Amino acid sequence: MQSVEVNTRVELKHGDGKFHPIPEQLLVSLGGKSFLKIRPTSQVIVSLICGKAPKNSSLSSSAALASLIQQRNEKGQKRGSDGGEGAEVFQAGAKKRKVTKPEAGIKEDQIITIDVDGSNVEVLWNCGASRPSRFDLCVVLEPEALAAVFSKLQEDCQACFEASKRAYKKKETSKSNVSSQS
Questions:
Q1: Could you write out the three-class secondary structure of 86-124?
Q2: From the centroid of its chain, how far is CA 123?
Q3: CA-CA distance, 18 to 20, in Å (whole number)?
Q4: What local confidence, expressed as pLDDT, does residue 144 receive?
Q5: Using CA atoms, how far apart are residues 159 and 181, in angstroms rounded to an integer?
Q6: HSE of 47 in the Cβ direction (CA atoms, 13 Å)?
Q7: Neighbours of 121 (CB within 10 A)
Q8: pLDDT for the residue numbered 91
Q9: What are the 10-residue block averages of pLDDT along the chain, 182 residues in total?
Q10: How much is the pTM?
Q11: Which of 6, 71, 132, 146 has a CA that sits 20 to 30 A from residue 119's CA?
């Protein structure tokens, strides 16, 4: 008997653009729901949201993305401040206490609803990171939610493309040092 392999993949299309296959690294599953990581440096995400984009373009300087992440962080921190994750329980009479780090992973209570231009969009607070406030925005993989987020981010595309790039200092090579000493 021969083996059978079943392969599924996610392809997304925004507006009049073409379908873009989404790499597995940008997908997260939780309790039967799938989420898309909006990674600002991913060329797939940039071309999906902005259409044709210059080489090595990024949404890192997007004010809209920063505001969505800030909104997620505020709601997530409010949720985490009421005990929740990382709270230690002191057991009286315990001779040796085992110290463990809080587990980095996605839990059911990590789904937060944020407002994106009047639409309620579910996002993940943690998205599998040990420092959730610094992680990518993970949006539920539903057409209405993605359309709201993509439309919001699309407003900043041109500004992100025109943003100044990080300046790099070119190191002097040993050849130039030798020639300058002569």
A1: CCCCCCCCCCCCCCCCCCCCCCHHHEEEEEECCEEEEEE
A2: 10
A3: 6
A4: 92
A5: 45
A6: 15
A7: 24
A8: 39
A9: 85 85 88 87 87 81 87 81 43 45 53 87 76 76 91 84 70 62 54
A10: 0.70
A11: 132
